[in-house]
């Protein structure tokens, strides 16, 4: 299921990744929790940031929090 916020679609997997990051753990730890590599986490984060128009993972987490998506 995709979530639409201000014309931007984020998948459940995208939101799960952002929610994990919001807990303050490292990218590598997020990867282990989601059973993907740290490199994949970084690539997915870059795609999310590009889609929502922010520059950093922290901004992406804040963006999702402000919209009560995570």
Task: Spell out the blueprint of helices and strands.
Blueprint: E1 2-5, E2 8-11, H1 12-22, H2 27-34, H3 38-52, H4 57-66
Antiparallel strand pairs: 1-2
Helix pairs in contact: 1-4, 2-3, 3-4
Describe this structure in words.
The chain has 70 residues and is mainly alpha-helical. It has one domain (2-66): Arc Repressor Mutant, subunit A (Orthogonal Bundle), CATH 1.10.10.10. The chain has helices at residues 12-22, 27-34, 38-52, 57-66; strands at residues 2-5, 8-11. It has a two-stranded antiparallel sheet with strand order 1-2. Helix 1 (12-22) crosses helix 4 (57-66) and helix 2 (27-34) crosses helix 3. The longest helix has 15 residues, at 38-52. The chain is globular, with a radius of gyration of 11 Å. The chain starts with a strand and ends with a helix. 23% of the residues are buried. The mean pLDDT is 91.
Principal-axis shape: globular
- Distance, first to last CA: 15 Å
Q: Quote the CATH topology.
A: Arc Repressor Mutant, subunit A
Helix content: 55-70%
In CATH terms, the superfamily is Winged helix-like DNA-binding domain superfamily/Winged helix DNA-binding domain
Major sheet: arrangement of strands: 1-2
Output the number of helix runs.
4
Instruction: Please name the CATH architecture.
Output: Orthogonal Bundle
Order of helices and strands: EEHHHH
| Main beta-sheet strand count, sense and barrel state | 2 strands, antiparallel
Radius of gyration: 11 Å
Total discrete domains: 1
Based on secondary structure, the structural category is mainly alpha
Low-pLDDT ranges:
none
């Amino acid at each position: 299921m995709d979530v639409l916020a201000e014309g931007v679609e984020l998948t459940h997997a995208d939101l799960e990744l952002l929610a994990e990051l919001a807990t303050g753990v490292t990218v590598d730890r997020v990867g282990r929790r989601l059973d993907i590599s740290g490199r994949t986490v970084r690539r997915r984060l870059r795609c999310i940031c590009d889609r929502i128009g922010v520059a950093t993972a922290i901004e992406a987490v804040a963006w999702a929090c402000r919209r009560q998506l995570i």
